[in-house]
């Protein structure tokens, strides 16, 4: 049984970015006032850049915020495919340049060594995350939970013991590192940021009938103890 999500629908991606950034900044401020610091996990891909830039201008004690990628492509941080590069260029700028950053990517030859290093670094954080911002691909993947991944079962296991796993998938361009389902689900707030009519209708289908192996966002929706906050706007030109 899926807890009914809270939909936040906007007329344009710009309006979404502004309001979403304001809401997340407020939530981070509350977390800092309650426990002296805040942990924020953010997704990569093509959708979040405007939201990141809007959030980076908010006035909050950024030195008390640690940012972690929800998932990472196993590519150098100079690559255009690097989620870390996106986060550094769009979120860790302006006022948010003072935030701390815990990467998933490590410059080692073997991705399983990178996963061990990232798992240790995430385990050392004062978990749980206060805010997790998820995205969703057109195939229903979220984080790096891909439908055709041999490692999907382990990554979306609600009892997974690791916080970070290395995963592969024929549909992904490169091997990935991903936070696992339980560490995402333990967050104080889980927000899902999607844009475009296609993703809206895909999500409605998953909400009506979740099949996590086919559309892995369904694993989050099915197992979340609290309703997700879904931020949606049409794409430009829709
Ligand atoms: O590969 C990824 O894709 C998803 C969705 O990205 P988008 O470009 O369709 O917005 C993203 O949430 C994830 O972090 C990223 O690694």
TrEMBL record:
<dbReference type="InterPro" id="IPR006148">
    <property type="entry name" value="Glc/Gal-6P_isomerase"/>
</dbReference>
<comment type="function">
    <text>Hydrolysis of 6-phosphogluconolactone to 6-phosphogluconate.</text>
</comment>
<dbReference type="GO" id="GO:0005975">
    <property type="term" value="P:carbohydrate metabolic process"/>
</dbReference>
<feature type="domain" description="Glucosamine/galactosamine-6-phosphate isomerase">
    <location>
        <begin position="12"/>
        <end position="221"/>
    </location>
</feature>
<dbReference type="Pfam" id="PF01182">
    <property type="entry name" value="Glucosamine_iso"/>
</dbReference>
<dbReference type="GO" id="GO:0006098">
    <property type="term" value="P:pentose-phosphate shunt"/>
</dbReference>
<dbReference type="InterPro" id="IPR005900">
    <property type="entry name" value="6-phosphogluconolactonase_DevB"/>
</dbReference>
<protein>
    <recommendedName>
        <fullName>6-phosphogluconolactonase</fullName>
        <ecNumber>3.1.1.31</ecNumber>
    </recommendedName>
</protein>
<keyword id="KW-0378">Hydrolase</keyword>
<comment type="pathway">
    <text>Carbohydrate degradation; pentose phosphate pathway; D-ribulose 5-phosphate from D-glucose 6-phosphate (oxidative stage): step 2/3.</text>
</comment>
<dbReference type="GO" id="GO:0017057">
    <property type="term" value="F:6-phosphogluconolactonase activity"/>
</dbReference>
<comment type="similarity">
    <text>Belongs to the glucosamine/galactosamine-6-phosphate isomerase family. 6-phosphogluconolactonase subfamily.</text>
</comment>
<dbReference type="InterPro" id="IPR039104">
    <property type="entry name" value="6PGL"/>
</dbReference>
<dbReference type="InterPro" id="IPR037171">
    <property type="entry name" value="NagB/RpiA_transferase-like"/>
</dbReference>
């Amino acid at each position: 049984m899926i807890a009914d999500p809270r939909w936040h629908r906007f007329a344009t991606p710009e309006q979404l970015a502004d309001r979403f950034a304001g809401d997340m900044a407020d939530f981070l401020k509350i977390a800092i006032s309650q426990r002296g610091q805040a942990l924020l996990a953010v997704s990569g891909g093509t959708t979040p850049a405007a939201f990141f830039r809007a959030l980076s201008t908010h006035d909050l004690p950024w030195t008390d915020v640690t940012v972690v990628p929800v998932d990472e492509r196993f590519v150098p941080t100079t690559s255009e495919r690097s989620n870390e590069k996106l986060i550094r260029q769009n979120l860790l700028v302006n006022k948010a340049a003072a935030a701390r950053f815990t990467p998933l990517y490590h410059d080692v030859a073997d991705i399983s060594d990178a996963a061990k290093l990232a798992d240790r670094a995430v385990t050392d954080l004062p978990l749980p995350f206060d805010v997790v911002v998820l995205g969703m691909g057109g195939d229903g993947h979220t984080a790096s939970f891909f439908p055709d991944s041999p490692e999907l079962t382990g990554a979306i296991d609600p009892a997974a013991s690791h916080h970070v796993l290395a995963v592969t998938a024929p549909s992904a361009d490169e091997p990935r590192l991903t936070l696992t389902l339980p560490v995402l689900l333990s967050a104080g707030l889980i927000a899902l940021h999607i844009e475009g009519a296609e993703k809206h209708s895909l999500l409605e289908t998953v909400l009506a009938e979740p099949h996590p192996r086919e559309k892995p966002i369904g694993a989050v929706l099915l197992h979340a103890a609290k309703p997700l906050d879904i931020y949606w706007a049409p794409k430009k030109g829709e």
